[in-house]
Amino acid sequence: MKQPRSKHKYVPIGYKLMLTYIFFIIIPVSVIGFVSHSMYNDSLREHTSSNIKGTLLQIRDNIDYKMGEVTRISTQLYSDYDFYRNLRSYEEGWENYDRMSMKVLPKLDVAIQSTGMRIGMSLFLKNESIPEIYSNSLEGYLDNSSFYHLYHMNRIEGKSWYYDFPTEKYAETMKWWQIERDVENNRISLLRRLIDTYDPLVPKEIGFLRINVGIPDLFNSVNYTKIGKGSILILKNEFGRTMYQSGELPEHYTNEAELNKDYLTISETVTVSNQAWQLNALVPITILEQDAVKVRLFIILMCLICCVVFSFVGIFISRYFSIRINKFVYVLNAYREGDLHKRISYRGKDEFSQIATALNDMGENIDMLIKEVYLTQLQKKEAELEILQSQINPHFLYNTLSSIIQLAKFGQNEKLQQMVLELAKFYRLTLNEGRTMIPVPTEIEQANAYLEIQKIKYGERLEVMFDFDTEIWPYETIKLILQPFIENVLKHAWCGDHIHLRIVGRKEGNNILFRIIDDGIGMRQERIDQIFDPKGHTNTGYGVRNVDQRIKLQYGSEYGVTIFSRVGIGTSVQILIPANKGKRGIRSNVVHDEKGS
Question: pTM for this one?
Fold first, then answer.
């Protein structure tokens, strides 16, 4: 019979949460939009600055290279001892003409032709025995080809730029300077003394070198188009004077502060002959703002769309959610993690009270079912272990009894007595008062008892070596995991009339590893695969699978038996179990590293 439905009215939880839901959506979306816009602006400026900085570095390197070429020409003449020797010679007549035409002038020709720039070189000499050489076409400055002039020093000794030239430091003193008509001709000069080091203690000035280069040739890489439309590139010397400018700066700017409002300024230092020049790039802010405005409008539009959509979605779906649902989620998570003792205490007359009651009942029922299933599985596992252990092939007992009869028949009473004692010892250890787990020394002692019986049977044809680490003595194992593999060796591994068997036990980390190694006939990989996955060969490797299944049932799938074998070489069986200590005291009569025959 259905219970009458309660007519108690309540405000749906969805409507209670709707306003809060909308409030907490609008604020994060607005904040995200603002932060995204700010981050984009910063990223755009940083990216632009980085790109322009890279371009300025390329321009600087180009300027360094060209000015370095001119410096290299001056250094070539400055450090040429043979050149100095000819300049200070006062021979006259034919010798003087021969010296100049064969030794001095060719060096000047090579120097001015060694770069792709139009170079004007003026050499001022104190040796007045050398005749002056110069042209009359504006001193060659307006010619399209490179040139050189030879003058006497008295032409410049009264010049202010020569008087103000820095004190000489050998191989270091040089200066880029616009002198004479350089500004008028849009050129710049590299100035350098010529020093004779014939007497190193008293360096002597024998002349002065001026290398004149066109500014457009030297700074043709300073091009505003590499930065962007509307940009300006300005190269200033160490005194702040503009040496070269690419791009036009509007005339209405009255000061630098006003200029910085509309332009982003990026600077790079150009070092020439110990002179620090400044390369400035002025990038219009409008170029950056064009992309920023598009992104700003896009972010604002997306924020508005998100707010509207989330608000409408909140009206329809928020009614189905509430803070109370977290209680159910918490309990369900506890159930999923295995804690079935959690319960929900809920007061109310809505649908959540019914869910809470059903969930509490479900937890209680599941807890009872798990306990029942756990006990059933535990009992099943113990039963499977007992069944597997009871299925050990009893033919060993039949074979041993047959051997005892043969010994009695031939009157070998001493061997008969020893075999009976070892058989009794073997079954005493095997029965072990019905216990499945035994100490490791007991398992080894049991294997040794089995081998003692076989030694009586096979005599010197069987050689056995035990190699056990005493570190494994305190631990326990499932019984009868070594004997089946020893039995397999004696049944199937004979290669001729002699066999050697080695039994090893080691502790490796938190595990114990047993190895049974023989030098018998070995087997192929197909045979090993049939042992662990018999399919149609159900009788193949029954004892091996028996041990492997018992270990996995007791300890888990990561433990068990592994076989390695090579035909004609032998077989190695590895048995891996965890190193678990038993509850009883452990004793052992097994001898470590024992050899038997």
Answer: 0.45
